[in-house]
């Protein structure tokens, strides 16, 4: 940055959802140390959706939609586990915040949410419940307002309820942020891009299906955020091909069943029965694996937390980066990742359920540390120490439960998947299998180590494309990002009612010009084909700077002022569609400058940081909180250096939003 200014420092933040809220909280936390009270700082938040929740978590969505995390596993605040340079400022998790409302208004230190349904939910919310997204919206709104209240008087926050369309300006001068609803752009010293998850225009393969649907008067929905999708074109009783069996499907399922007036009844034996309204379509759902994501665990650890990381932490990543040949994720990295996940699993098994083990823990862990994951020694150790195969961790079997399995009839396959779902839910709700939660926690730890490995540039291009962004992302989501158990019990009931039909693994979607229908087949039931009059791609759109729906990123991309992550080597080129930022400080890489742009920073989902979610489980040293703290401190230092202490401009409010 060149020169200094006597006027107020100005920071523009594009996007006002959870990621921007977390950054604002860290600015408030670090301001007493790094911001002179005599300086004025004006922060512009630019987002058409409410600050705090943003678009994804806004209140204005169906009350049927839920989080896939328990209330006690959601926080926006640093805690004793956070390894940061700034001050730790603990705050309540969603569950702890909601508990303040349990006694009614006389006992609540926080303002009550305006929506009476949300308030009623919060008053009865248990830490092990899976809240509605509206409850999370209320929590995020409160976190945002708390962050505002903790800013010093010299810091003003202004919310612009509009869309940022462009950023221009030299690397050594002020930045101009154009807004959709005003002719004059905002002038800022620094700009932070924090738009969160973004939509994309349909990819070529989806455009072909869209063209087919238009020609034949059929319904087609490309990848989209389900809460935003218009599903009114799906007719009662219409047969619908659905590709994708993750959270987007679960939302779709809820909106097209309960959302259309159907109800679930709990029978005397505890099972659910679905009572249709008659307005539901029939969903034929399949995916690569052919089964839904694993249910979220609905219990707590029974033993002490596993000391993570152990086998795949900073030292292991350093050793991988120190080599002199390209790394392959499955060959070189996955064995260490798998061993870490296994450590979390067996740590919980041996400490919480020692009666189901045949060796003392010290003996087991000593041998475990010495053995490679894929080795005869490891196989022999686990076989000897863990007598019941149900207690052993078989990641390959978990990954592809239908591999090599075929069925003679569709009905036989339906029954098999229903049994799979019932077993999965029962296991994930039985504390006797809490070793699965130990594995889950280790899986999260592994996820947090991967960005450094990618940033180190040692993974081969094909390995990033097919291993990291392909197989690993799907495997992680399949194991760790599944729905709560009650959703899978609902799916079981919908299957028995004939509203959902399981299409199988390796789903194949085709078109039949003669009948004007989509065709659905899979490897699970060879020779069986279903014809449907609608197709829904039930998964989120992939990141794509070429096709992004965000006007600001589209402008920067077309102007050549940002860089798409492209990893290339002698055998492969991988274009991830992600915005490249500098690993140390998240500055946007500008190809015109040959490096980081000193005045533009980008955080969150559209960037190649990966693994940096906006909120986190408590006590996990969350990567997002670490990045938020580092960026907030850098922003305050940079702005302080540019703007010496002086008298604030007349007529500028000192705190709050408008």
Automatic annotation (TrEMBL):
Coiled coil: none annotated. Signal peptide: none annotated. Residues 12-197 form the FAD-dependent urate hydroxylase HpyO/Asp monooxygenase CreE-like FAD/NAD(P)-binding domain. This is Adenylate cyclase. The lineage of its organism: Bacteria, Bacillati, Actinomycetota, Actinomycetes, Kitasatosporales.
